[in-house]
Amino acid sequence: MELTFYKYQGTGNDFVIIDNRNNEITLTTEQVHKLCDRRFGIGADGLMLLSTKEGYDFEMVYYNSDGRESSMCGNGGRCLVKFASHMGINKSTYHFIATDGPHDAVIKDNQWVHLKMKDVNGMQHSFSSYVLNTGSPHYVKPVGGNDLEEMDVREEGKSIRYSDRFAKEGINVNFVEELPKGIFVRTYERGVEDETLSCGTGVTASALVFAHNDNGFNRVEVKTLGGHLAVEFTKTGEEKFEDIWLCGPAEFVFKGTIHI
Ligand SMILES: N[C@@H](CCC[C@H](N)C(=O)O)C(=O)O
């Protein structure tokens, strides 16, 4: 079967996107895994289907590059909104459904996509690390000094992700360094089982932890290896956040067909 696909990226977090509004496409775990493979397929951190759902502009169905359907992907959601617009779904505010519930999104004049994330009602902390869910589960570890650039994120992230506490369900692991204006985040992603250039739900979690340490901010600028993002929010309690928006670029890379 010939499959038409579109490749998008959001700060270097890259995705294969397939238009499934006719509901004809069903992919196996092996097929998604192969389509995301950087040598035997197209190559991507994840794959998304643009599907239909009554009451919404569209439904987002997200798979990690290991081929398994997973929880929310922030950068993926932003890319899917851009794709929907390129497919002729034009709205001033997009309203779509994903695995973690409904989302709103807006494409700004500078072409950045602002995506509303689910509310966060608390976080667990022990020693200097934090665990919270921003649509996907995240472990956030602040790193001191200027050590983050040099860190072996793949190895350090893997040891936390496969520790007894997290091995079964898995977790995404973020290392965060405070900058004079914002934070620098590097993420080991569950389901990719490697560092990615950026992770939207991870950047969101890290920004909220940063806000948790300092009440004075409602917008955090975020540097990732793949580019710049920002997270805006309203802090409603000690560890409670609402009106959380993940903001950043989302770009079309190429289109093609592949035999599956
Ligand atoms: N890249 C994503 C996160 C995708 C889901 C994650 N790998 C998981 O399985 O939890 C993002 O931008 O949020």
Automatic annotation (TrEMBL):
Pathway: Amino-acid biosynthesis; L-lysine biosynthesis via DAP pathway; DL-2,6-diaminopimelate from LL-2,6-diaminopimelate: step 1/1. It catalyses: (2S,6S)-2,6-diaminopimelate = meso-2,6-diaminopimelate. Its EC number is 5.1.1.7. One of its GO terms (biological process) is lysine biosynthetic process via diaminopimelate. It holds the Pfam family DAP_epimerase. GO terms for molecular function: diaminopimelate epimerase activity. The record marks 138, 189 as: Could be important to modulate the pK values of the two catalytic cysteine residues. The keyword Isomerase applies. GO terms for cellular component: cytosol. InterPro entries: DAP_epimerase_DapF. Belongs to the diaminopimelate epimerase family. Catalyzes the stereoinversion of LL-2,6-diaminopimelate (L,L-DAP) to meso-diaminopimelate (meso-DAP), a precursor of L-lysine and an essential component of the bacterial peptidoglycan. This is Diaminopimelate epimerase. It comes from Filimonas zeae. The lineage of its organism: Bacteria, Pseudomonadati, Bacteroidota, Chitinophagia, Chitinophagales.
